[in-house]
Each structure stands twice: as structure tokens, then as C-alpha cells.
Design a protein that fits this description.
328 residues; alpha/beta; Rossmann fold; Dihydrodipicolinate Reductase, domain 2; 2 domains; 8-stranded mixed beta sheet; 14 strands
Length: 328
């Protein structure tokens, strides 16, 4: 029997997960909404075997092996823990949380229950990301000194302030929505932050609509990123080292993948990367890990490290202080 997927909520991100699951050979077993009619209509439209009118009902469904949680940010930890208690594996939409202790509680619960939990940073599964990490590790830019990342776009002009990402009660804001990708990249390439400084601009609803941060990383490496909802679209990643730099114009979605290596003499080499669906690769990795055939590419330890970093950045920006995160 193949892996059977249940999706908790009918969020827009599902439009990327559903075709990816089908391409990965994963059965669309069930979807849940808080309205039965909506759930049943959504299931019929998108090819699920059934729709549930309550989140709990999806967790009780014996035909669901893996739960993908696409509900708003503040529900991620609660429903991840509930899914774990129901014996389900979980792929939870990023960010899991910005509280390190919550992330540790999730990992502890998953280990005790013998199930797998992964935070849905799909970009980490793309061959482009793996190649970036290999090039940095193998000295393509010499000794890394700075890892710089950006992810921003004009959300106000796209969706309006009714968007849940503008809701402070739902853990909205640009750090949680897009800045978390930048943090994921800096951590992947440079380790866990030792010291953090951050500044933010708040919008009318009280969430950050622009943020910058500087992170002191192990080995005298600096991480810098900016994110926001108030500028033209920007998404880029750069690693600057003693012998050159590595630049990626489309690191998060890899719609037009490719890595540019710039040497100290001004020469440029492009490393070509094939186009692939990061969401499909993410689900294939989850399926392989559940089957015991491969390790999770984004595991519990990574989720704890990510939450630790987000917690420190949020506090640094909110309080205007430099934050030293607690030990990993």
C-alpha cells in the first residue's frame, strides 16, 4: 500500500502540494476544513477520496498516514502535536514556530510516538540548494565570510491588509512568512547563530512589513538578510568568501535555477541546474524517510535550530537589543 496523504485546511498553498503529491505517487486520501460542505466540495474538486468537516476527523481517519498542515502559523504546533498523538507522520508548513521550546516539544513527542515530522522548507530539497552547499563546502569561494539573503515583495498591492499574514494574532509578518527562508539558508551554510541584531518596520496592523538582521555565526562568518512586504519582488542568496562569491537569483522557488560563481579576478562561471519541482521532491523525501529508505532532509533538529534563530531575531527586533540565543 502506498503512502496516503491528508491535508489539514484548504489553504492556497495546497495548490502546489496537491499536484506534487500526485506526481510523487502519493494517494490523496482526505482533506479537512471546519465546514463540512466546503470540505466535501474541495475534496471532489481536487481529487481527494473524502472531505472532513473537522480537523479532528482527519486525524481519526485510519486511511491517512501523513498529514500536511497548511493552517495559519499559530495552529502549526497545536495540530502537529495532535497529529503526532494520533500516530500520523507530519509535514508542517513553515514556519513550525518561532519558539524553540515548542519545537523541542514537537520533536520529543514525535520521537516518543515513533513518527516523523518535517518542516516544509521545500527549497531545501531542490538540487540547486544541494549544489550551493557543496560548492561552499568545497571552497568555491574560499573561506566564507558573509552569507547574504533576501526575500521580499509588495504584499499590500497583491492581497490587501486582510491577508492573514498581516494578522498579529496569527503570527503574521514578513519574518515568519519569507524571512524564515533567509534564516534557513544562513543556517544551512554557516551553522547556528551565536549573536543576533535586528531592526524592523511595523505596518498598520502591528506586524513587521520590513526587517533586516545581522547574525554572528561560528567561525567568524556573518549572516545578513532582509525581508518584507513593502518593496518590489526580490529573492536572492549570496555567499561572499576570501576568493570570490557565489550568487543565486532565484534560491527559494528555483523557477529559473542556476548558480553564478564570481572569482577574485572578475571572472564568472554559471553552474546550470535542471528545473525540478521542489514540492514533489519534498514529498518524495518524506515518503522515503517514512519507508526507512532515506533520512529526512529537514529533520527535527533542524526545526529546533530554525525556531531558536527566529526567536532570537524576533526578540532582537522587538526589544531593540542584541540577543545571544540559548545553547543549541
Amino acid at each position: 500500500m502506498g503512502l496516503r496523504l491528508g491535508i489539514l485546511s484548504t489553504a492556497a498553498i495546497n495548490d502546489l502540494i496537491i499536484p506534487a503529491a500526485t506526481a510523487a505517487g502519493i494517494e490523496l486520501a482526505a482533506v479537512a476544513s471546519r465546514d463540512t460542505a466546503r470540505a466535501e466540495a474541495y475534496a471532489a474538486e481536487h481529487g481527494f477520496a473524502r472531505g472532513h468537516g473537522a480537523y479532528r476527523a482527519l486525524l481519526d481517519d485510519p486511511d491517512v498516514d501523513l498529514v500536511y498542515i497548511s493552517a495559519p502559523n499559530t495552529l502549526h504546533v497545536e495540530w502537529t502535536l495532535r497529529a503526532i498523538a494520533a500516530g500520523k507522520h507530519v509535514l508542517v508548513e513553515k514556519p513550525l514556530t518561532r519558539h524553540a521550546e515548542e519545537a523541542r516539544a514537537v520533536v520529543t513527542a514525535a520521537e516518543a510516538a515513533g513518527v516523523l515530522v518535517s518542516e516544509a522548507f521545500m527549497w531545501r530539497h531542490h538540487p540547486q540548494t544541494r549544489r550551493i552547499a557543496e560548492l561552499v563546502r568545497d571552497g568555491a569561494v574560499g573561506r566564507p565570510l558573509v552569507v547574504r539573503a533576501a526575500f521580499a515583495f509588495a504584499l499590500e498591492g497583491m492581497r490587501g491588509i486582510r491577508d492573514t499574514r498581516f494578522d498579529p494574532d496569527l503570527d503574521g509578518g514578513s519574518l515568519m512568512d519569507v524571512g524564515c527562508y533567509c534564516v534557513s539558508a544562513i543556517r544551512l551554510l554557516a551553522g547556528e547563530p551565536e549573536r543576533v541584531h535586528a531592526e524592523r518596520i511595523l505596518g498598520p496592523t502591528g506586524v513587521d512589513v520590513a526587517m533586516t538582521a545581522t547574525l554572528r555565526m561560528p567561525g567568524d562568518v556573518l549572516g545578513q538578510f532582509d525581508c518584507g512586504f513593502a518593496t518590489p519582488h526580490r529573492d536572492e542568496l549570496e555567499v561572499i568568501g576570501t576568493e570570490g562569491s557565489l550568487y543565486v537569483d532565484d534560491p527559494w522557488h528555483a523557477r529559473a535555477p542556476g548558480i553564478e560563481i564570481r572569482d577574485a579576478d572578475g571572472g564568472r562561471t554559471v553552474v546550470e541546474i535542471a528545473v525540478q519541482d521542489s514540492y514533489r521532491l519534498q514529498l518524495e523525501n518524506m515518503a522515503a524517510a517514512i519507508a526507512g529508505a532515506a533520512p529526512l532532509r529537514v529533520d527535527g533538529a533542524d526545526a529546533v535550530g530554525q525556531a531558536r534563530a527566529l526567536e532570537a531575531i524576533h526578540r532582537a527586533a522587538a526589544e531593540g537589543v542584541t540577543v545571544v540565543p540559548p545553547p543549541v
